[in-house]
């Protein structure tokens, strides 16, 4: 393989891996705090791509489009908690009640898919570039032609992931999340509003999905049914890295994204299959994830 091809593979893999990390971090933070995840997390990302598509088509400034997308997804996260999560809390002592959130979040995902399909149709669409004047703006790096949009998205996602870690481990709200994750009853005795924290993590997870949707729009064709793939891959990334270790999730996303890019280069017909098989093998050998023991679980 030539160096230029290698650079292109790594660039594409890092871009997609960064998106998987953003979605997986949303799964991580809700699982950490409530022991539940949104099985429609990828569909929330899909909504973010279509909100950006609609607002930009309406001629709104980019910053307004981004803020509206974040707001819409934040409201969706709040509604998800109120409709699909909180009503089930009083049923958690029952076997079916303890896991019914799987059905409710998946049901919300199906509703979201159908609403978007009714509004925008079934055909795949293209989102306008975020950072450049044209979709296929290419720059040369060591003989490799790289999309400017792809490079800037890698940096943008890296900054957002860095800010997330800072929020989680160096802010009062982040420490409240960790306290609720460790012991909700003790956190409540310390004056922490545990219900507000639980709502907040679903809102934060939805905002992370919105960011992923904003960034991924210019890289791929978007459709109402694209979300399931991102949910599955984000779950795999979280499982590879270890659900209790955000640093492991970051490394897992990078590894998965680069391996997926290389697999598609080697065999485009089955390029998506090989990373999934490799992930299943890793999980079978080490179910707790590659990096689960390197950082203490705060729960």
What labels would you give this structure?
single chain, 299 residues, mainly alpha, two-stranded antiparallel ribbon, 11 helices, 2 strands, globular, disordered C terminus
What's the arrangement of secondary structure elements?
Blueprint: H1 3-34, H2 41-57, H3 62-85, H4 95-120, E1 138-141, E2 144-147, H5 148-170, H6 172-182, H7 184-189, H8 194-216, H9 227-241, H10 246-266, H11 273-285
Antiparallel strand pairs: 1-2
Helix pairs in contact: 1-5, 1-8, 1-9, 1-10, 2-3, 2-4, 2-8, 2-9, 3-4, 3-8, 5-6, 6-8, 9-10, 9-11, 10-11
Q: How would you characterize this protein structure?
A:
It is a single chain. The chain is an all-alpha fold and 299 residues long. The protein has a domain at 22-225. It is 71% helix and 3% strand. It has eleven helices and two strands; from the N terminus they run ααααββααααααα. Strands 1-2 form a two-stranded antiparallel ribbon. A hairpin with a 2-residue loop joins strand 1 (138-141) and strand 2. Helix 2 crosses helix 9. It is globular. Mean pLDDT is 84; it is low at 294-299.
Number of helices: 11
* Uncertain stretches of 5 or more adjacent residues: 294-299
Range of strand content: under 5%
* Class from secondary-structure proportions: mainly alpha
In round numbers, the mean pLDDT is 84
The value of Rg in angstroms is: 19 Å
Number of beta-strand segments: 2
């Amino acid at each position: 393989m030539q160096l230029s091809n290698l650079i292109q593979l790594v660039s594409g893999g890092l871009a997609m891996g960064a998106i998987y990390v953003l979605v997986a971090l949303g799964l991580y933070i809700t699982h950490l705090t409530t022991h539940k995840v949104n099985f429609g997390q990828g569909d929330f990302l899909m909504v973010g791509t279509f909100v950006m598509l609609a607002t930009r088509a309406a001629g709104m400034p980019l910053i307004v489009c981004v803020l509206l997308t974040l707001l819409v997804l934040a409201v969706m996260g709040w509604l998800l908690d109120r409709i699909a999560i909180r009503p089930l809390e009083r049923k958690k002592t029952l076997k079916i009640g303890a896991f019914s959130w799987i059905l409710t979040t998946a049901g919300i995902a199906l509703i979201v898919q159908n609403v978007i399909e009714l509004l925008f149709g079934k055909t795949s669409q293209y989102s306008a570039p975020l950072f450049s004047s044209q979709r296929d703006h290419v720059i040369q790096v060591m003989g490799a032609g790289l999309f400017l949009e792809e490079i800037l998205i890698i940096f943008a996602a890296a900054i957002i992931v860095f800010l997330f870690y800072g929020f989680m481990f160096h802010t009062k709200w982040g420490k409240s999340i960790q306290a609720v994750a460790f012991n909700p009853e003790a956190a409540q005795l310390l004056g922490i509003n545990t219900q507000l924290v639980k709502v907040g993590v679903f809102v934060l997870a939805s905002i992370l999905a919105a960011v992923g949707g904003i960034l991924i729009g210019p890289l791929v064709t978007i459709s109402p049914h694209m979300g399931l793939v991102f949910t599955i891959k984000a779950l795999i990334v979280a499982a590879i890295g270890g659900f209790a270790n955000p640093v492991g999730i970051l490394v897992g996303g990078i590894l998965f994204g680069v391996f997926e890019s290389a697999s598609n280069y080697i065999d485009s017909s089955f390029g998506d299959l090989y990373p999934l098989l490799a992930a299943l093998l890793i999980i079978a050998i080490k179910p707790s994830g590659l990096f689960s023991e390197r950082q203490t679980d705060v729960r």
